[in-house]
Amino acid sequence: MANVLEQLLNALALAGLLFLVSAGLSLVFGILRVVNFAHGVFYMLGAYLGFTTVALSGWFWPALLVVPPVVGAIGALLESSTLRFIYRRPPIYQLLLTFGLALILEESIRVLYGPTAKGVDPPPLLQGAIDLGGVLYPRYRLFLVVLGCTVGVAVWLFLRKTRAGLVIRAVAQNSEMADCLGADVVRVRTLVFGAACALAGLGGVAAAPMTTAYLGMGIGVIVDAFVVVVIGGLGSIGGSMAGEEE
Amino acid sequence: MRRRDFLKISVAGAAGTSLLAAPRYLRAQGPIKIGMPAALSGSYAQYGIQAKRAADLFSKDIKAKGILGRPVEFIFEDTAGDPAAAVRKAQKLVEKDGVKFLTGVALSSEALAVSAKCPEWKVLFMSTINGAGALTAKSFHRYFFRVNTSGPMGARAISLYLAESPMKRFFALGSDYAWGRDSAASFTQQITAAKKDIVGSDYPPVGTKDFASYIAKIRQSRAEGVYLALPGQDATIYMKQAHQFGLNREVKPIMEILELENMKAVGDAMVGAIGSSRYPFTVDTPKNKEFVKRFHELHGMYPDMFDGETYEGLEWLAQVIAKAGTDDVEKVIEAWEDSTYEGLEGPFLMRKCDHQAVQPGFAVECVKDPKYPHPIPKILATYPGDKVTPKCRTEEFS
Amino acid sequence: MIPSRLWALAALVALAVVPWVLARHQLSLLTDLLIAGLFAMSLDLIMGYTGMVSFGHAAYFGLGAYASALVLLHFAQPVPVALLAGALLAGAVAVPVGWFSTRATGIYFAMLTLAFAQFLYTVAYKWRDLTGGSDGIAGVPKTALFWGGPSLTSPHAFYFVVATCVVVSLFVCLAVVRSPFGRALQAIRENERRFTSLGRDPRPFKLVVFVIAAAFAGLAGALFAPFRGFASPEVMFWVFSGQGLMMVIMGGIGTLVGPILGAMLFILIQEVLSSYTEHWMIFTGVVFVLIVIFLPGGLVGTARRLGARA
Fold it and tell me: B348 - beta bridge partners?
């Protein structure tokens, strides 16, 4: 019984992280029709920037707030300087472009941080393990469960209940029609791409205390995220949540 | 336009070369070239970079006198840890640059691929990093020399230490590839021979991000120690998570290799782990103290295992070339066989039968020391070379 | 028509003459480039002519390499036997994989081929008794051209084996795409629905071309193993599949010759850059992004466009 509880929590904690990555991947596919190979690298970028923020400030919490917007801004910048020009091409070109971007980003991080993994300590509040009826369970992983659920609900509410969410869903359904109806499709695409990167960045920051920030973490997570997204149905956020339960 | 660029480049090139070159009178015979097809990028870059750091220090140390009065030139090529690229780069070093000595290869798969080609190319392959037992057993040939402690030798050192410890029950966790499985098998065999128990074993795939289920399994097995043969990154992640689960307090982590890189990345959660070390920089010999000092001056950090092992290899190679009086590969091989060398950690002997360097083995513990910015390896036990070196051309011990 | 024939003749003459001009290491590099070129060309057959983007083509290269390595190492057969074994094994494995994968199209086809390739990679990685696991199979010899013949250890001899294979494969592939079968493939690429509505089932066509492409990739792998002397799981890894796609795009999709040139350019860029800087991946990435944005037709497509304009 205790074992089952532990396994369940492990699955939820990992699912929380994976959700942050696959939600963005799914969003980008749904709205931009792009399979973003570089998506995992933004997760990695989040982890490394998280390391830097913690090292500079000595605190973990600021990293959680500061890093995602920065990663998102970098993502939006890359989208508007490269991807924007080739949306009319067959999908393979976009996939390959993001492959190139992934190479550039991954190596740049290596140049800046060196080849060694960077450890990040969890905040003091979340260090150590907590006794859950006979099971010693790390507090930090419980935090990941909470974080994943909170962000999941927030994204869902945003897409369903706000006007911006409505526009995004409209573009996803039929971008030409949305364009005719006065939605700024170009801007929506850039913002959605940025937001997806920010989500991945958040995942990266949150993952760092558990896995450390290391080279290759982006490639590792992207394969898992692809599986999640394909199982859950490309382009649907709800699907990406459900896909992880597997 | 193009012509001017070309001129610029060649001027810069000439300036660069003359800066690197030794005094003019040495240049008559041309330099002794050592090729390093090393993993300088990709996931295994830390090992290639250690080899490069050692080579940088060595070229600085040898610059004044050279080898046989000739300057030493290192040529680096990046393999990114891919065996196909490693063979291609090695072939380029041999055919284009005319190197007679190859070293600095990081991964065992790369080493096996490159080494197999060396008899055809008639160049000497010096391993300073590669652990695979097969290199000096099944895949051995006379152009191959291993200066470093091999994987089976590392497992032997820590097994000897554990045989005398009060711990009785062990769990073996090895990465699911050649090195991890071989190390776990070697450890199991030796621990059983010492009349102790292996109460469980498992093989997580390389690149595992979540060790929670393995941690639960280890806890349930009620082992007193867990033997870990995980490559750099995976070991780092495992140690972090085991610490968060509070496992490290209950079950002693025993690492196949206890690296400085891991200690730096994991930090305090690593303290208390024991394991074998190919070269712990804390070895208390006058020669090593000098080396660590020079290394720190040049690179601003303390040398890791393969910084030390590669430096020893280069120094020994230089000594052997000097003894042979030529850089002719066949003569160097003859001069190296059964020769001795005073390494950083103690005496080395190059066995003629399988070209494995017989050298001391270490069991170390990760400890905190206020003198250093990160945890360091403290030597628990030192074993003489004949106790930790396997029987000739085998991976077995008597 | 005439200029392209002249080009072909010039290329053939060049391939025959260069070994006597090039230094030894350059000849080795050229051999390597040709093998990569054959791999990229085989990918173009399905990608460029049928519109099926496979993200797992390296698996067939790897299967060819393993088959060839095992035949040469354990049975000491002549090189052509190993080449045949490589092509056959790759083609045979492609039958079930193709049968499943061609049920999907577009990005789903890419993902399915990737999944199968990763599965084959895992088999190569784990089946240690046969494949040597992560250590791979080293020491693969270059045996003779025929039973009792001298072994092909001289760089020139092996170069000519590779060059012959590449030229013959190119002509076979050109013949395939110009045949009625090839026309059907291009019709599928242009509009699969219309093809179906004409009362024909596209799937057998797709399956056959998938198997042909895999067999040629297997041939490339079978040349690789004796040339480099080893086979290891890395040659089956998805990264290599991705690089194959890059080679095709760089050279010009749907041109067969283009991907050969693209593969050569791709490896040359890596070769040159990585000798100067460890950060060559950044530059490769930049070059690649620029090519995707500015030269969608790749080398050959762009050259043709310029030629047409002039």
Answer: B341
Q: Which residues contact A9 (CB under 8 A, 6 or more apart)?
A: A132, A137, A141, A142, A145
Candidates C183, C214, C199, C69; CA nearest to C135 is C69
How many CB atoms are located within 10 Å of the residue B2 CB? 6
B134 and B192 fall within a common domain: no
B109 contacts in C (CB within 8 Å)? 134-136, 232, 234
Per DSSP, which regions of B167-263 are E strands? 169-174, 197-202, 225-229, 252-255
Closest approach of C270 to chain B, Cα-based (Å): 10
φ/ψ (deg, to 5) at B353: -70, -35
Asked if B365 and B269 sit in the same domain, the reply is yes
* C272 close contact with B: CB closer than 8 A: no
Question: Which of C106, C288, C293 lies nearest to residue A91, judging by beta carbons?
Answer: C106
What's the DSSP call for residue A122?
P
Instruction: Please name the residues between 145 and 184 in chain B that touch chain C, using a CB distance below 8 Å.
Output: 176-179, 181
The structural domain count of chain C equals 1
Global pTM? Answer: 0.84
User: Which strands sit side by side in the sheet containing B169-174, from one edge to the other?
Assistant: B197-202, B169-174, B225-229, B252-255, B274-277, B361-367, B376-383
B301 touches chain A (CB under 8 A): no
CATH code of the domain covering residue C26? 1.10.3470
Has residue B396 been placed in a domain? no
Is there a single domain that holds both residue B144 and residue B203? no
Tell me: ipTM over 0.90: no
Residue A111 in contact with partner chain C when CB distance is under 8 A: yes
Q: How far apart are CA A189 and CA A171, in angstroms?
A: 9
**Same domain as B189, residue B273:** yes
Residue A123, SS3? coil
State the burial class of residue B349 (Cβ atoms within 10 Å of its Cβ: 0-12, 13-18, 19+): middle
Helix (H, G, I), strand (E, B) or coil at C153: coil
Quick one: tokens of A84? 């924007």
Please tell me if residue C227 touches chain B, with a CB cutoff of 8 Å: no
Does C107 sit within 8 Å of A106, measured CB to CB?
no
Sheet holding B124-127, edge to edge: B72-78, B32-38, B101-103, B124-127, B144-146
Helix, strand, coil percentages for chain A (3-state, nearest 5): 80, 5, 20
Strands B101-103 and B124-127: parallel
Contact call for residues B41 and A107 (beta carbons, < 8 A): yes
B243 shares its domain with B255: yes
On chain B, the residues whose CB falls within 8 A of the CB of A215 are: 42-43, 45
Using only C-alpha atoms, what is the Rg of chain B?
Answer: 22
Domain boundaries, chain A: 15-122+130-240
Domain enclosing residue B37, as ranges: 28-149+284-358
Structural domain count of chain B: 2
Pairing label, strands B225-229, B169-174: parallel
Sign of CA dihedral B257, B42, A35, A65: positive
Question: Residues B39, B125: one domain?
Answer: yes
pLDDT per residue, tens digit, chain A (246 aa), is: 567 777 788 888 888 888 888 888 888 888 888 888 899 999 999 999 999 999 898 888 999 999 999 999 999 999 999 988 888 888 778 888 998 899 899 889 988 987 777 888 888 888 777 777 777 788 888 898 899 889 988 988 888 888 888 888 888 777 777 878 777 888 888 999 999 999 999 999 999 988 888 887 887 788 778 777 777 665 555 545 444 433
Q: Which residues on chain B are in Cβ contact (under 8 Å) with C128?
A: 178, 181
